[in-house]
Write a structure and sequence with these properties.
Elements lengths: L2 H8 L5 E8 L8 E7 L16 E15 L2 E14 L3 E4 L13 H13 L2 H7 L4 H18 L7 E9 L4 E8 L6 E7 L3 H15 L5 E4 L3 H10 L4 E4 L1 H25 L10 H5 L7 H10 L5 H12 L8 H16 L4 H12 L1 H5 L12 H15 L6 H12 L13
Helix pairs in contact: 2-4, 3-4, 4-15, 5-6, 7-10, 7-12, 11-12, 14-15
Bound molecules: zinc ion.
Length: about 425
């Protein structure tokens, strides 16, 4: 069997034929050259307007990188025709394997992009003997294609989250779809400002608003304002994960302060190594941590009181009746305000302020998944950690869309990856 037969099997073009396959004399490492010709009766297509146009002349031969075969690089070789187009002037023809000035064929770029979901970009570049930059551009290309071709109809619930990137106080605003079957990243915005979220609604609002029922976020005021203004018909919900995260932060602050004080006063360091047994969910504790927690609970420490207070608050999410949930919330806040646990009091105060939004949680009972935003946030963090090496917003944006966007891909006769 000839290589042309295989090529026709994986990628067949109506108006072009694979002619000769030979070693490339100019390459240092063994490289295959696949010469392509236009069919005698095939007339060129204008790359500007995609109409069949009369030929004008031929450009010198050029090459495109195709998917490597058994780790042997493969080059497509073809001399582009120029067309004389009444609308676009004298321009190069359109060829099905590539467009524009890209040095890689479409298939090869999708191939690299696909691998870049499984490996880091650096690894992909290494494995396929190409540059990091080529991999990045392939991913960017796949993301741009996917964003244009994705379907945003039927989105019912949004989750809005912010995430820290780089060191220091750089934030991104992430908007997820968190309903029913599909959980995906819809949008990445620079900063966590009012403007950042505004531009999401600017861009996707028309498509999303008609079916939107719930919007879930944390208590960050700029977000709350934009949601109210832009998606007023949807029920606004405070995300459970964010609230519990705030409480954990408060507990951690109390623990750190208390541990320092105990040490200064010369007491036994009972709080040493206690951080995770206080912050983790009970069912996730290791045996050692469970023992440590049991031990800690015997002391009348502020940390322990804060811990118990948070555990008690978990009950809030299990109520069936809004009225009882409201009663519980108010009592919990009153008790906490009297507790002398300053960081936790701050949380209680903001919960009080947002009582209505908190109680909206029960309107969405069962309709949106409680852990959706948390799960996606975790994945986003992982992607960013793997994504070190590119510091620009565009790089991070591309990586996040690629991993979390569930973006569509074109149909190919053959799947290379
Ligand atoms: Zn044209």
């Amino acid at each position: 069997m000839q290589l042309q037969t295989i090529l026709n099997h994986v990628e067949h073009y109506k108006s072009f034929v694979y002619r000769r396959v030979a070693w490339d004399e100019q390459s240092e490492e063994p490289t295959l050259r696949v010469e392509i010709e236009s069919r005698a009766n095939g007339r060129p297509i204008c790359s500007g307007c995609r109409q069949v146009r009369p030929g004008y002349d031929r450009l010198p031969e050029r090459t495109w990188e195709f998917v490597p075969l058994w780790q042997i690089p493969v080059l497509f070789v073809y001399a582009l025709r120029r067309v004389d187009c009444p609308d676009c002037g004298i321009v190069a023809e359109r060829v099905p394997w590539s467009h524009g000035k890209h040095r890689q064929t479409r298939s090869y770029r999708w191939f690299l992009a696909c691998w870049a979901k499984r490996l880091s970009w650096q690894e992909v570049a290494m494995v396929f003997h190409t540059s990091w930059d080529t991999v990045y551009r392939a991913v960017r290309y796949a993301v741009e294609w996917g964003v244009v071709h994705r379907d945003l109809s039927g989105v019912q619930a949004l989750g809005i989250d912010e995430i820290q990137h780089q060191r220091g106080h750089h934030y991104l605003t992430l908007v997820y779809q968190i309903d029913g079957q599909i959980r995906r990243l819809l949008w990445v915005g620079q900063n966590r400002t009012r403007e950042a979220l505004e531009s999401f609604f600017e861009l996707c609002g028309d498509e999303i608003l008609p079916t939107l029922k719930f919007v879930c976020s944390d208590m960050w005021q700029p977000y709350l304002d934009v949601i109210r203004a832009r998606a007023g018909d949807a029920v606004q919900i405070l995300d459970r994960y964010h609230i519990m995260a705030k409480m954990n932060k408060a507990i951690d602050e109390i623990r750190a302060g208390e541990a320092r004080r105990l040490k200064e006063d010369g007491y036994e360091p009972v709080l040493k190594h206690s951080r995770w047994c206080l912050l983790k969910r009970k069912e996730n504790l290791t045996t050692k941590q469970t023992v440590k927690l049991r031990d800690l609970l015997r002391y009348n420490l502020k940390t322990v009181r804060a811990y118990l207070s948070r555990e008690e608050f978990q009950r809030f999410w299990t109520y069936e009746s809004v009225a009882w949930a409201r009663k519980f919330l108010r009592e919990w806040c009153t008790r906490t305000m009297r507790s002398g646990l300053t960081p936790l009091k701050k949380v209680a105060r903001s919960l009080r302020e947002h009582e209505d939004l908190l109680l909206n949680w029960f309107k969405a009972h069962g309709e949106i998944s409680a852990g959706a935003v948390e799960g996606l946030n975790l994945k986003a963090k992982l992607t960013m950690r793997k994504a070190f090496g590119f510091r620009t917003f565009e790089g991070i944006e591309t990586a996040l869309y690629h991993q979390l966007g569930h973006l569509p891909e074109p149909e190919f006769t053959h799947k290379f990856c």
